[in-house]
Structure formats: C-alpha cells, structure tokens
Amino acid sequence: MNFNKLVRISLASLCITVLLAPSLANAQDKEKKRLQAAGIVLDDFGKMKESIPSSLLKVTEGIIIVPKLINAGFVVGGKRGRGIAMVKREDGSWSNPVFVTLTGGSVGLQAGIQSVELVLVFKHSSSITAIKKSSFTLGGDLSIAAGPIGRNSTANTDYKLDAEVYSYSRSKGLFAGISLNGASLEFDTAADALFYGKGMGPAEIFASQGDPDDAVTKIKACLTSLK
C-alpha cells in the first residue's frame, strides 16, 4: 500500500470517528436521562403516603422502574416503555441498573392513550437475573398482581404476597382497560453497551461495583430510604 493511499484511509477513518462521536454522546445522554427520570419516579413514590407497603419492601429483592410506559389503542392496543432493573445483593445493597424494555399488546374494551409511571417489585432477584438474553412474559412466565397499597397500613400484614411481581403505577392521561398481563420484559443490551461499554452484560453489570453516574447514586439512596 503506497503512502498516499494510507493517508487517505487514515483521514477517512478520522472523519468517521469525528462524525460518530456526537451520535455516541447523544445516545449515552439518552440513557442518563432515563436514569434521571427513573430516580424522579422512585423519589415521588417514596413521598406518597399510599405507596408500597413496608411489609413488601422487606422481602423485595428486585425492582424495575419504567418512567414512561405508553399505553395506546382502540379495541386493539399496545404498550411500550424503556426502564431500568436493579437487584438487591446479599449484603443488602443495590446493584447498578441494567436497562430493560417492556412491550405488549391487548384486545378488549379500550380507547385512548396513556402515559404511565411504572414500578414493578420483585420478591426474588433471580426472577430478573434469569431473563438473560431472552425475555419473560408477565402473567405467563411470572405471576403478577396489582400491589397492595398503604405504607404503614396494618391491613397489609395479612396480605398473602403470593405473586412473584407486584405492580405500582401513576397515570397521566386517559385510558380504560390497562393491564400488564401478557407484557414482555427483556434486557436492552444495546443501551447497556452504550452506557457501560461493550463486554458488559447484565450479569457483569449487576455484579459491578461503584456508581457509574450521579443518577445511579440517587436511585440507590431512594431505594435504601424506602422502608
């Protein structure tokens, strides 16, 4: 290869790198915004009097936060949202977040569009870590139920907590017939690679130490304060 051709190739590679750099930064910024939005949702849930009961929080080993689940349709509906998943470690601390997506469809009496802030509480961390590269269906692979309400309500002490996953949501907009049964959860490996770098799969992220971003620090603090 002659010198001039080598120079042209080097310049072309440099141009591509320069052009892709803003796109990569913008993509990483989107994931940071998702983390920030998840932290706000969790903080708001923590301030609500009628929120997740302490009796459930004591046995919680995993959580998924979807800041914006869009639910829309007319007779035939669909839902999609992007969020984060975290698991509780053996020492009681919370892991770094793995990015997830939730998608699903439904048929029935429904009309309109709705934006939902969604929190899914898992009794066992293995239910989240077992997703791996595939996905699972809520109501199919895992039992799901609307979570009991009342942070300090004595009525919750008798709640059986038989389901594996409990859902909590706050709606914005109008919709009838919302349901999470049949919705599919899977890891967003593309988002993980953008935020953490290639080679960091869900298992490595859950096991990683240190907070990769200030938003993660805030989320962990919120989870620790939810008692």
Overview of the structural elements:
About 35% of the residues lie in helices and about 30% in strands. It has helices at about 5-45, 55, 125-130, 190-195, 200-205, 215-225, and strands at about 60-85, 100-120, 135, 145, 165-175, 185. It is globular, with a radius of gyration of 20 Å. The chain has about 230 residues and is of the alpha+beta class. Strands 1, 2, 3, 4, 5 and 6 form a six-stranded mixed sheet that branches. α1 runs parallel beside α6. InterPro entries: SH3_domain_YSC84-like (IPR051702), Ysc84_actin-binding (IPR007461). This is Ysc84 actin-binding domain-containing protein. Keywords: Signal.
As residue ranges, the low-confidence spans are 3-21, 154-158
Structural class designation: alpha+beta
What is the count of structural domains?
1
Radius of gyration: 20 Å
Tags for this model:
single chain, 227 residues, alpha+beta, 6 helices, 6 strands, disordered N terminus, signal, SH3_domain_YSC84-like, Ysc84_actin-binding, Ysc84 actin-binding domain-containing protein
Concise account of the structure shown:
This protein is 35% helix and 31% strand. With 227 residues, the protein is α+β, with helices and mostly antiparallel strands. The N terminus is likely disordered.
